[in-house]
Amino acid sequence: MHELSVTQSLLEIALRHAERASAQRITRLNLVIGELTSIVDDSVQFYWDIVSRDTIAEGAELHFERVPGTLRCLGCGHSFPLDGRSYACPVCGENQVVPVGGDDFRLESIEVD
Amino acid sequence: MTTQVSVVEEILSANDQLAVANRERLDAAGVFAINLMASPGAGKTSLIMRTVEVLREEFRTGAVDGDIATTLDADRIAALGIPTVQINTGGACHLDAAMLQIALPQLPLEKLDLIIVENVGNLICPASFKLGVHHSVLIASVPEGDDKPYKYPPMYRGVDAVVLNKTDVLAAFDFDMDYFRQGVEALNPGLAFFPLSCKTGKGLDEWLTWLRNKIREFQGDA
Question: Which of A20, A63, B111, B184 has the most CB atoms around its CB within 10 Å?
């Protein structure tokens, strides 16, 4: 349920950048969300429709670019996707890994009129 | 005409900035703070009580207790006679840096060595919100099952220690200790791991020694 506070942050960031660009209207937000951040698109969209009301971002389209969770083996350097059951490297079997993808949680750009 | 404006800003950057401010405040007061996270019922309050009972003799200790509603946990901790601040998040699933910022001045910071923050019981949301404390500790418990490090990687990664509570009931569950530990250590090579039982007290000494050393290291650096 933390999508509400997340969505409020999102609006604040978008409005700040739109103002800096002297925009009249925000039409689209391009978000990059990693699999490791546990954010639900539909829930953000639901709150967005409420928090953006009566702002220049009202009605703006939210576009989610999803980044899959990726781990890198500390033994052999192989990168592989998160599968939810094991962290062992499928190539060498090593069990020590670092997440190298899927942490993303940012507003990449906005489209304005 | 539509134009694209580059933003590239972390969505939680406002929280991250407040977390940095909290850390500066704690450092200035010379207080070491830890954030305890766990699912509901894993034993956060029990571990705090066991810890405070022993360490209060050595360190002046205070607590911040986050809960969705009620003061049940804060009352249990305050009954130990240490300064305790309750944060009712009003339904929010996690503590964030702004909530801790409000709680800190309600504690006698200059007169404390250690603050234990009890986060809201939840294995998903608290992972995303930095508080500005010095160390984060995850408390798991045997009845939750040995697959949790694999199902909740955002929560299990990036912590400084994992406590596995309720080891007194291991015999009643199909809990594969090696599988659990592999999952924990895969994401956090070299992580401190403490299987223990708050009920029987077994294993508590290792946890207390680790925490004691962390506080002393902090005090030595300050």
Answer: B184
